[in-house]
Amino acid sequence: MSVATDPYSVPIDSIDMSDPDIYQQNLMHSYFERLRKENPVHFSEGSACGPFWSLTKYSDIVEVERNHIDFSPDASNGGHVLGYENWFTSDPELQWPMFLAMDPPKHDVQRRAVSPGLAPDALKRMEATIRKHAEEIFDSLPEAETFNWVTQVSVELTTRTLAMLFDFPFEERRLLTRWSDYAFSIPGDGLIETWDDRKVVMMEMKERFEHLGEERRGDSSGFDLITKLANPIDGKRLSPAEYMGNAILLLVGGNDTTRNSLTASALTLNLFPEQNKKLRGNQSLIPSFGSEVVRWQTPLPHMKRTAMKDVVIRGKEIKKGEKIAVWYISGNRDEEVFDRPHEIVIDRPNVRSHLSFGFGIHRCLGNRLAELQLRVAWEEILKRFKSVDLDGDPVRVHSHAIMGYSDLPVQVKRH
After folding, report:
1. Which of 15, 41, 184, 249 could bridge to 316 as Cys pair (CB 3.0-4.6 Å)?
2. Do 74 and 306 contact (CB within 8 A), yes or no?
3. Residue 406 domain flag
């Protein structure tokens, strides 16, 4: 399908920011720019995801994210992503609640259970292994030959890290990528044709994760996330459905943020060559560069909330029970917060003020791991390559839930 390339050519009431075509065709930023200017609290009625409000200004997004009492992501209220009902509640066999789609106190207990696996001391233990994997990946890349950065670098590094996090058999690690990709797939996106296609893969994943959980139940000494989920939390074991929901959450969260930010990092240094020169001249800017890429890319473009009472935002009356999409991807380009928001500025003063990891009690649990992988990757890239050159156009995925890429053709030149 195709959408209007000029957002001003369509009536503003007809704009539907849940349309995945907008993202695949890289038109989202011009649409959000119009909404921020003309209708920052925007209502979509005819969406395939049902009616919902869009919040597009940074300050409004932060206020809603701070207020988890009046704005709920709970699965019983419709979940945390537009289309959640199609993915996780329409089929009884796939009703797998996850802590990101829970209110306190349940959210707090289940989040706390896996937090140690992503705490600073755990990241210190992992860094040497992540670096070893990065070295192997970058040493294996062909020179003066076009290859797909997504599959050979971004997917490979994140999948190796996921295998470590889950203590999953290394030789079967690409199963983790497969399951993560299918978890938020929709019919017609090039991956599945029907919801039944997705279910087949989800049940394959369920069988394997249940087997891993059974193996590790009763021994809580392991650092891996499966062990954390399989054993009692505050004396109580997760239900089988909660175990699966949280496994998917950690799988997708551990895959998509880093994978698509790492791809975007190679893309942006081609789009903004002066920033590439600045980075190579001052490698202490690598952590700042990583944060700026995460802002620019916004791998998870939105979260959904349900109004738990009647509220008014910028004069718009939002009724109890209505759905609200907080568009991180728009807040991250808000001209009132970020100077030159559509550009990469690696030494931006407020570089860590982005919304890509969310805000408040539901803030991304693995944000430090994502930053670690980006930092290690670029430390190793700059050691080896004098350039990573784009050799074709990026191919973006067909999704409103994941801002990602399936192909980024590049060539590398070694020092």
Report:
1. 41
2. yes
3. yes
Please check whether residue 181 lies inside any domain of the structure.
Answer: yes
Ordered strands of the 409-414 beta sheet: 147-148, 409-414, 385-390
What secondary structure letter does DSSP report for 308? S
Longest Cα separation, the chain: 61
CATH number at residue 170: 1.10.630.10
Q: 346: which DSSP letter?
A: T
Burial of 361 from C-beta contacts in 10 A (0-12 / 13-18 / 19+) = middle
Which residue type, as a one-letter code, is found at position 24?
Answer: Q
CA distance 223 to 123: 11
Amino acid making up residue 238: L
Tell me the pLDDT tens digit for each residue of 75-134.
888 889 998 888 888 888 999 989 998 999 989 988 988 888 888 888 999 999 999 999
Residue with tokens 């080896």: 384
Structure tokens at 231: 């054993």
Closest Cα to residue 382, out of 411, 351, 414? 414
Sign of the alpha-carbon torsion through 212, 213, 219, 224 = positive
